[in-house]
Amino acid sequence: MDVFRSLKSRNFRLFFYGQSVSLIGTWMQKTAVCWLVYRLTNSALLLGVVSFAGLIPSLILSPYAGSYIDRHNRYKILVQTQVISMLQALALAVMILFKYYSITGIILLTLVQGIINAFDVTCRQSLMVDMVTQREDLPNAIALNSTMANFARIAGPAMAGILLSAFGEDVCFGLNFISYIPVLISLFMMKLDTPVIKKADTSIWTELREGFHYISHDKDLSSLLMMLSVSSMFVIPFNTLMPIFAKDVFNGTAKTFSWFESAAGLGSIISAMYMANLKAGKDMVKILVTSSLIFSLSLMLLAYSGWLPLALVFMVLSGVGMMAQTSAINTYIQTHAIPAMRARAISYYIMAYQGIIPIGSLLAGVMANVAGPKFTVFAEGIIGVVAVVAFVNYRRKHADEISIITTSAGNNAAATTAA
């Protein structure tokens, strides 16, 4: 099928299969951690703190990670990050197995995983170009990668809901540790023709400045990153409050919480399959605007839906909008950034996405404590709509400059492909 065309590339196929297993384990652990923290503390604020600890390293370290990865072998870095992630999962599993329910320990281990992810996610995204044989299949590979991640977002919480009810949190953590084995096997089976990294003449700090200068002076890319930053700060963190919706608003259990996570994942898969089937040349900016509106409006409706099935429908729609929004921005950056700056451009994408979410999660937790979870989610939807309007107006105001930049980027990409 055309939708799976990038799987013809052997290296990407191995990566896809290995990550499919691992990400299910990751979402099982994430669901178990959220449920465990809220079960032990009944604190919306601590839910925000845990999310903050897991993602704040991306805000601080992503630009450095992008420059570091541009100077080193990306494949070796990816293997190293997966091994360290496996050890982190083992430490968390052992802690919970022996009933050492330390919120401080959970936060610290979550922080460690966040530091690893600052390098791992940037590395995986920038290595995608080397995994796909045909350059025109890159957008399809990005969309399939998102499909895989969001399938795991359905399967992981669903399995976690069953396991949490039947066995407890420690089983979820143990299975996440085991899930890293297929990833490492698939990585060792790859035969990547990665470019030889020449010793840089400039310092990594000089490259950091060059990356910032490139992004800040490119109104095309910077406008998309600003849109993503606002969404990550004020809209995407709604997910932090879903354990409260499941337990307090709908008087549910861990299984109810897993339904919320799985519903968002289902929407993301629907969206990702659409993105994967897009023909080359599709206007990603239009998709970004449409999906952002779907995302924001679904949150406004979710906030005050009093019937659980209807709330889950709006969760599905939120997954559709959020996934298409982030995937459209990711695809646009990877296909428009100049090759020499690709990893650094992706690192700013990671920073704007995963790096800002923790601050938003903390704010969402504080606001939910003060104004309640329903009002907080509704307000996040309102902010999302306002951000879309501001983004569209900015692009119209600077349309001529953006058109020149886009044409230049297209010529650079064509020249690189031909070479």
Describe the model.
- Mean pLDDT is 84; it is low at 413-419.
- It is built from 17 helices and no strands.
- It has one domain (2-188, 204-418): Up-down Bundle (Growth Hormone, Chain: A), CATH 1.20.1250.
- The relative contact order is 0.16.
- The protein is 82% helix and 0% strand.
- The longest helix is centred in the N-terminal third of the chain and has 32 residues, at 10-41.
- The chain has helices at residues 10-41, 44-70, 74-97, 103-131, 138-166, 169-178, 180-189, 204-216, 219-234, 242-249, 254-276, 284-303, 308-336, 342-355, 357-371, 373-397, 399-418.
- By secondary structure, the chain is mostly helical.
- The chain starts with 9 loop residues before the first helix and ends with a helix.
Layout of strands and helices, then pairs:
Layout: H1 10-41, H2 44-70, H3 74-97, H4 103-131, H5 138-166, H6 169-178, H7 180-189, H8 204-216, H9 219-234, H10 242-249, H11 254-276, H12 284-303, H13 308-336, H14 342-355, H15 357-371, H16 373-397, H17 399-418
Helix pairs in contact: 1-2, 1-4, 1-5, 1-6, 1-7, 2-4, 2-8, 2-14, 2-15, 3-4, 3-6, 3-7, 4-14, 5-11, 5-13, 9-13, 9-14, 9-15, 9-16, 10-11, 11-13, 12-13, 12-16, 13-14, 15-16
CATH superfamily, called what?
A: MFS general substrate transporter like domains
The name of the CATH topology is Growth Hormone, Chain: A
Average pLDDT rating: 84
CATH-level-2 architecture:
Up-down Bundle
Features:
about 0% strand; mainly alpha; Growth Hormone, Chain: A; disordered C terminus
